[in-house]
Specification:
Length: 90
């Protein structure tokens, strides 16, 4: 346990940030899962709609520093690739 006043404050700040970041990570996973569900169903229109929403959330999370910008780009790219494969396989 922290003994110094500054360390105690730092722990408090870390707890707040951890809770906030957990919310962002949960939103990110949920958005990605929605896209993948629509891809599995083969519904291109809905998948594209969910992809737009997911891109917005992923970009926001990356701007907050919860996710690295290259990791965010990789996630968007991967989801886009899966959505685009729907029309190729149909």
């Amino acid at each position: 346990m922290a003994n110094h006043k500054s360390a105690i404050k730092r722990n408090r700040q870390n707890e707040k940030r951890n809770a906030r970041n957990k919310v962002y990570r949960t939103q990110l996973k949920t958005a990605a899962k929605k896209v993948l569900i629509e891809v599995e169903a083969g519904d291109k229109e809905e998948a594209e709609k969910e992809l737009q929403a997911a891109e917005k959330i992923i970009t926001k999370v990356a701007s907050k520093g919860v996710l690295h910008k290259r990791a965010a780009s990789r996630k968007i790219s991967g989801l886009s690739r899966k959505v685009n494969q729907i029309s190729a396989s149909a």
